[in-house]
Design a protein that fits this description.
37% of the residues lie in helices and 17% in strands. The strands form four sheets. Strands 6-5-4-7-10-15-16 form a seven-stranded mixed sheet. A four-stranded mixed sheet has the order 11-8-9-14, covered by helices on one side. By secondary structure, the chain is of the alpha/beta class. It folds into two domains: 132 residues, translation initiation factor eif-2b, domain 1 (Four Helix Bundle (Hemerythrin (Met), subunit A)); 203 residues, Translation initiation factor eif-2b, domain 2 (Rossmann fold). The chain contains ten helices and 16 strands.
Length: 355
């Protein structure tokens, strides 16, 4: 399939299987990948066919159901034991994005609390995965609208800089940081979005730029190293990024390059916002020093496409994420509203499984 969609959904449940937009092939080709086995879902998450913390969570939930569907036993206790193995396979795919672990935990909780036959548990697991997907879509729409309340009021139309991809492709279908931008565009409060290319995998250039073009949102692509220049020239009114994991104190792990944007924004007195659902907050971690930072294969640095751009013999360091201290974050925009990082812990009163 090569034509573009009318609406972008990164994860689709249809015909008793999952369909994923292959994000590794955008923007050159819009292609759907069919997933009907848990092992294939794990591989799709690992190879970034699906990526973005909320989308990974949705995909993992469906992966849990696909794995459950493959378990052949009528004994509920044995079923749950085997489902734990499915969970472990999925946990090993991406270590930083906490939504992955949150969705797996919720699916396991569903299975543990189901007092019924194996077939009924499997049906309930599918319903739970579908609920997680719908909830994420509603959550992101709320994040987008809540972001409008904290954006600068002057000028009337804002220029916003964003990093990586945090739109429909990274979520169930609306976006976190790009969802705020999308809401600002809808309300006629956006003049332009500056899109960091986001080295080394170029999610900004390939994915965010593609989403903006699809929806007619005015966007300008810049290299990561141009952000400071744009701020110095008063071209940026606010910075909005997403998050892969947020510690209880507000420290935020996000795509590599986020921390430098926060430092530059502070130097130019530009508000720096993080937009993420509460499922991204890991209240078990008191601060960001405990967040595991995934390191990926050096080929992401030394190759662009199939072209090698570095001399042989050079060494590489390729962390996929960095940590932005809470003190550099103006507010964290969630479905519950825009929250100051040091007040985040006050919201840890409701179980992640409620609502």
């Amino acid at each position: 399939m090569t034509s573009s969609p009318n609406h972008i959904y990164s994860v689709i449940w249809q015909d008793d299987r999952v369909w994923l937009i292959d994000q590794t092939r955008l923007p050159a080709e819009y292609n759907l990948v069919e997933i009907s086995r848990c092992e294939d879902m794990a591989q799709a998450i690992r190879t970034m066919i699906v990526r973005g913390a909320p989308a990974i969570g949705v995909a993992a939930a469906y992966g849990m159901y696909l794995g459950a569907r493959e378990i052949e036993t009528d004994d509920p206790e044995e079923f749950v034991r085997q489902l734990e193995k499915v969970a472990q396979l999925l946990r090993q795919t991406r270590p930083t994005a906490v939504n992955l672990f949150w969705a797996i935990a919720r699916m396991l909780k569903t299975a543990y609390e189901s007092i019924s036959t194996v077939e009924e548990i499997k049906a309930t697991l599918l319903e739970t995965a579908q609920a997680i997907q719908l909830e994420d879509l509603e959550t992101c729409q709320a994040i987008g609208d809540n972001g409008l309340s904290v954006l600068p009021t002057q000028p009337n139309k804002l220029t916003i800089l964003t990093h990586c991809n945090t739109g429909s492709l990274a979520t169930a279908g609306y976006g976190t940081a790009l969802g705020v931008i999308r809401s600002a565009w809808r309300e006629n409060r956006l003049q332009r979005v500056y899109v960091d290319e986001t080295r080394p995998r170029l999610q900004g250039a390939k994915l965010t730029a593609w989403e903006c073009v699809q929806e007619g949102i005015p966007a300008t692509l810049i290299t990561d190293s141009m952000a400071a220049h744009c701020m110095q020239r008063n071209l940026v009114d606010a910075v909005i990024v997403g998050a892969d994991r947020i510690a209880a104190n507000g420290d935020t792990a996000n795509k590599i390059g986020t921390y430098s944007l926060a430092v530059i924004a502070r130097a130019h007195q530009i508000p720096f916002f993080v937009a993420a659902p509460f499922s991204t907050v890991d209240f078990e971690l008191p601060d960001g020093n405990q967040i595991p930072i995934e390191e990926r294969h050096p080929s992401e640095i030394y190759q662009i496409g199939k072209t090698t751009i570095c001399p042989s013999g050079i060494e590489f360091y390729n962390p996929a994420f960095d940590l932005t201290p809470a003190k550099l974050i103006t507010a964290i925009i969630t479905e519950k509203g825009a929250i100051k990082p040091n007040e985040l812990i006050n919201y840890h009163t409701v179980s992640m499984y409620e609502e």
